[in-house]
Amino acid sequence: MVTGAAVGSVRSVPRLVIAAPASGSGKTTVATGLMAALSARGMAVSPHKVGPDYIDPGYHALATGRVGRNLDAYLCGAELMAPLFAHGARGCDIAVVEGVMGLFDGAFGEGELASTAQVAKVLRAPVVLVVDASAQARSVAALVHGFVSFDPEVRVGGVILNKVASDRHEVVLREALEATGIPVLGVLRRAAPVETPSRHLGLVPVAERAAAAVAAVEAMGAQVAEGCDLEGLVALACSAGSLAGAAWDAGEALVSSPPPPLPSPAPGAAPPEPPVGPGGPRPQAPDGPAVAATPVKKAGSPVVALAGGAAFSFSYAEQAELLTAAGAEVVTFDPLRDEELPEGTSGVVIGGGFPEVYASELSANEALRKQISGVAASGAPVAAECAGLLYLCRELDGMPMCGVLDASARMSERLTLGYRDAVAVSDSVLAASGTRMRGHEFHRTVVEPGAGASPAWGVRVPERRVEGFVEGGVHASYLHTHWASAPGVARRFVERCRTS
User: Fold this and answer.
1) DSSP secondary structure of 188-251
2) Mean pLDDT across the stretch 95-122?
3) Is there a catalytic annotation at residue 393?
4) For a tag site, which of 51, 202, 456, 458 has the least CB within 10 Å?
5) Catalytic residue among 76, 386, 402, 497
6) Which spans in 41-138 are helix H?
7) What share of the chain is helix, strand, coil (3-state, %, to 5)?
């Protein structure tokens, strides 16, 4: 089998983008199965996911034994897609990138921004189109032709037919596609789906399924190995164009992070407007003055406790890498199991996940709840996103939480979902007032009140509002952010750890 080892440079690592005409076509099964099948043949596979999703990369990591990484042009900017890809693909023979939604679907109202097509073009990667053929025959050729011709800069190099009913059905589909000139690189038969349970926010994360998740990934790998032309897929991957520029590096990103922060406003003044340049506003480095006077620095590497485990499994790998590059020792703790924070904790980061599913267990761990409350009361930095916000509330669905914030949280029938352009309203351990960042929301919960006396962010879409809480060293918000877009977040947080 051809591998990328002979190519010699991460800049030209063989790569494929697995896309589809629409969600539900089988992208995750094919992408994860291909990663597993290639890994089983001894290849070092670099797994990537277009968009902000946290769950699919967990399955990718199981399939490859490497960290699953996101490529989101809305959160990080198109200019960071190739560097972040190259960072993840270091030392690999091949990379597989799972797309998001339909091939040309991206941020609402923003053209191709954050679409699979945009990322494929930036990476100069061929696209494999996964088509759900369950309810069509000859019409598949018209569908594929449309996707091939819609944007000439997107190179569709092959098709994988999913949910094919029979040998006869396969023959009809193959004959129809001959006219398009696009090779069929795989056929997956209509069969009982691999057991990948879902709930209110999509697939159940790997961290919650353990052995069942391993079995699911193995089943996907077997499906793809049996039904797809692995040699043909690898050969197509090897046709990807070379990429210019250096791979992203956390340490270098901290040194070369964007211009100085906007000045903090005088008491009572409105936050300054962020500058607008060509292509619209971009994230700025959230450096600047600390929230409170902290004259004495701590020696050595401050310990940053990073929440993990089944209840808090949502984070981007670059966050921990940036904290480490900024001088912190990052230690993971599990709020479901650990009754104490890591020894010497100077700051706490609590990302996304499903605390609503584990509310009773989190509530029962009273010792840890009280310790986190004490850390927050001391003025030490605490950064919480979405699930972390719920955990810091007084209660969640009536069950006691950490009580850091005078707010209550509950489940809701309404899904809140979408990208957000945000401006920091208050100086915090993460950002100076006026800092512009992009993020996303994804939850079925409500926090009341939705903002504190010093809100974290102001957003304009879907409506103008402020949200989140800045209290002492605490920054808590529903907004998920990708720190690679503004490395100064990590530097500012670690500096506060040293001086609080």
Assistant:
1) EE--PPP---EETTEEPPHHHHTHHHHHHHHHHHHHHHHHB-HHHHHHHHTTPPP--SPPP-HH
2) 97
3) no
4) 202
5) 386
6) 55-64, 73-76, 81-88, 116-123
7) 30, 25, 45
